[in-house]
Amino acid sequence: MAETADRDEELRRQLLTIVAEEGLVESREVGLDERLDEMGIQSADFVMILMAIEEKFGVYVPVDERLTEAKTVGDLLEVVCRHIEDHRAKVPS
Amino acid sequence: MKPVAITGLGAVSACGFGAESLWRAARDGVSAVRDVSFPRLQRQQVKQAARIADADFETLLPRAKPRFQDRTTILAVEAAREAVAQAGLGADDFGERCGVVVGSGLGGADTIERGYIRFLEEPSARSDVMAIPKLMTSSAASWIAMDFKATGPTYCISTACSSASQSIGMAADLIRAGIVDRCIAGGAESLLYDIMFAAWESLHVMTTTRCRPFSRDRNGMVLGEGAGIVVLESMEAARARGATVLAELVGYASTSDANDLLRPDPVGATACVRKTIESAGIDPKRIGYCNAHGTGTIANDQTETQALREVFGSAFDGLLVSSTKPIHGHALGAGGALEFIVTVNALREQIAPPTIDFLGVDPKLGFEPVPNVARAFSADAALSNSFAFGGINAALLVTLPGRG
User: Fold this and answer.
1) How confident is the model at residue A92 (pLDDT cuts 50, 70, 90)?
2) Which residues of chain A neighbour B361 with C-beta distances below 8 Å?
């Protein structure tokens, strides 16, 4: 259990870094409750974030309803984590 | 607006060659989407598209000029010949009273890619000396003008997924302005090649499962390729030569969101559909069918539903809407023309083609497009929408002959 929690924590940390880097905001400013629109993250930044996630984790995240509905950084991470977990379940590392 | 006669239709797509093949596939819900493989991509995530099979494309080569023409142009010229043949135009019907307005999003993508790959693999090799005239976006328009000796104004409109709809609309404007008597108009696109496909993948708007416009659980679009070309004429010019009028183009408008490069804005889409219907001066209740832009992305389908609901008001419930993109793919710069051709045929046969792979109503949209099987209707007007990246919207409205 502890190992899974550590892995989740590590995954979330990596994703936060990606959101900050690709969204061109300082990583220390990115909190889970932060609203994406208030951070100035626009459609083009979203695409950058998805591409970076694909490069790092090998998972293709289409812009589906869950993603479209994401309002905060936490929402975004939740959707992406689920895709990554589904992907890992299908393609064991 | 003064009606313009539609006298010829021509289409080349993964559904086959000929406007009739396209229409039959759309009406019967037979998808041309197949597995596609791009060997140069180390990580191909999306594995399907409505691509014209190489063996089929090769049958066009004996009547094309592949050394001088990109695949986009070859498809466009083929579609134009079909449209012109159906219109029954003779040598005297071209000249300076005939214009050409043929758009494309990217132009000669195949030529561009081959050039880059060749240069990177063998920098000292001679490049394709015809690369520039083949890849320029206006190449298809020029080749069509040359093919028929149409010496009137020739334009190429490159506005992504609205290229073809704007081209048809602008051709009608040229005719109504009295600048020409007739126009060969439409769009062509062929970009299903390694580098371009990877670029599309990186936008994350394509589905890895099925394209299901307006459906619950939809998650993206599927690409296609092809060319759609129509012949438009002033009613007087068509009558003077005794041409058969297939339908009349009675409304056209275009608006710009001027807002976001990728995310569509319902305000712009609503204004476009409203102005199109207003330009025709007809009651929205007369419109029985709408061939939606319906890409199958969350954003487009939400925006488009909102726009249609707002413009049609209480008439929205009686309007049959479908997206035929899961059948012929999203053909981008050709899309508006292929869908215009489907719309004209739908109107003529009074059959609304289906939105295939529809699973059920998306509660956020709260409406059902014609699901999975075609449905008959009784009306004398139909609408075709195109909403492009860059926020450029265009819509075309047609009626049965004599009903404009």
Assistant:
1) low
2) none
